[in-house]
Task: structure prediction
Amino acid sequence: MALQAAKSLRLPPLPTVRDLINLYGLRARKQLSQNFLLDPRITDKIVRVAGGKNFGGGHVCEVGPGPGPITRSIINAGVAKVIVIEKDARFLPTLQVTL
Result:
């Protein structure tokens, strides 16, 4: 009975990366070579080209995820675990929402 109830439970969707950037007032810093890719079609394609079809429950380490758009595409590719390494602490709240 509990399993059936859990299957029918729907969580609200995550806020978009653009919404999180606006919420936390984030701006890309040129001195850190930051650039935000906000189109999920592009980030999904990047993950596919990087072998996303072969992730199959594996572990992925992403360096410099920023606000997390590629991280979301990696998670959607079906990995078991994502490890992110981010130098800029401004992005911690956005990553905590995503992960």
Summary: The helical segments are 2-8, 17-23, 40-49, 69-76, 92-98.
